[in-house]
Amino acid sequence: MGTYLQEREKMYKLLNAMLAMNHIDSKAHENTIIHHLHPLLKIICSFMMIVFIISTYQLLELIVYTLMIIIISILAHIPIKKIISRSLLGLPFSLCLGLSFLIFDHKMISFYGLMIYEGILLFILVLLKTSLSLMITYILITTTPFDQITAELIHIKIPSTFVLSLTMTYRYIYSLLYDAKTMSGAYLLRNPNMKAIDLKDMGSFIGHLLVNSFNKSQRVYECMLCRGYNIETSYLRCEKFEIDNVFLLMMFISLMIIVKVVI
Question: Within 10 A of 163 (CB to CB), how many other CB atoms are there?
Fold first, then answer.
């Protein structure tokens, strides 16, 4: 009975993950100001914001970028709670780096008149940078259909190997989730007293999952090639970058420079 309940719980988690992916695809086709912007414009602006966020060490500047993201999310009709929850996916990685600053950096610095440890400030900056970068990425994929993103990446001469890897990962994430669910179910059926995969078996589990995923992706790719698939010719429908998009891009660059210089 316990194993059955565990399997049902895992199935619910899998279904929720798939529904979340479908929700992203449906959100990308909504009718808002942000959705109507040119895909290449959104890609360039998102990339620039991430670069500006990563390169800054000013907490006030990051707060300004946070306000900009909130305004964009409101215009795109994306709930703030949804964006924050998606940004927490990178929390484990940023915590590992941030905790290292807390442990090893004990230098005292002045922060707006307050004396604090530099490690504390760097810890906060790492968390904010990671969260803001993931927020921008989530806004991009929920306001731009993935086919448009792929077409623009090919149009600006991004290596086709990278674009193909990105496309295959995005399109077949459902298959990866299903394989993970099947393998975890088989593991729990063989170990009915276990509530989850044991830590000593985790390495082998992940290794088998990766091998199965590689083999399946290779078979799928070979089938696609047999049907004449070519990444460079499959995404040729890209919108023309009109003069109004150039004007909007120049305005955005000017705004980012003003924020960087003034703050």
Answer: 19
Six-digit token string for 72: 């964009």
Q: What six digits make up the tokens of 65?
A: 């970028």
The encoded tokens of residue 189 equal 């059926």
Rounded CA-CA distance 155/160 in Å is 10
3-class DSSP assignment, residue 110: strand
| Res 21 pLDDT > 60 | no
Tens-place pLDDT, residues 175-208: 777 777 777 777 777 777 776 677 777 777 777 8
Q: Full-prediction pTM beyond 0.85?
A: no
Q: In the structure encoding, which two tokens stand for residue 144, read together?
A: 């731009």
* Cα–Cα–Cα angle for 154, 160, 166, rounded to 5 degrees: 90
Q: Going by C-beta distance under 8 Å and a sequence separation of 6 or more, which residues neighbour residue 187?
A: 194, 197, 201, 205
Q: Using alpha carbons only, give the angle 217, 218, 223 rounded to the nearest 5 degrees.
A: 95
